[in-house]
Amino acid sequence: MDSRIGIFWLREDFRLTRNDALAYASQNHEKVITIYFYKKKLFEDRRAQKWWLFKSLENFKNDLDKKNINLEIIECESYQEGFKTILNQKNFSIYWNKIYEPNYLNFDQKISNLLLENKIEYKIFKGNLLNEANEIKKNDGTPFKVFTPFWKTAEKYYLDKDHHKKNTVKSKSSKINFSKNSIKINNILPKIKWYPKFEKYWKPSESEALLNIREFIKNEISDYGSNRDIPGVKGTSKISPYLAFGQIHVETIWEETQKIERKSNGYRKYINELGWREFSHSLINYFPQMLKGNLRKEFDKFPWQNNKKHLNAWKQGLTGYPIVDAGMRELYETGWMHNRVRMITASFLVKHLRINWTEGEKFFRDSLLDFNEANNVAGWQWVAGCGADAAPYFRIFNPILQGEKFDPEGNYVKKWIPEISNLPKEFLHKPWELDLSVKGFELGKTYPKPIVIHEEARNEALKAFKSLKK
Ligand SMILES: Cc1cc2nc3c(=O)[nH]c(=O)nc-3n(C[C@H](O)[C@H](O)[C@H](O)COP(=O)(O)OP(=O)(O)OC[C@H]3O[C@@H](n4cnc5c(N)ncnc54)[C@H](O)[C@@H]3O)c2cc1C
Question: Which of 174, 266, 258 is nearest to 222 (CA)?
Answer without folding.
Answer: 266
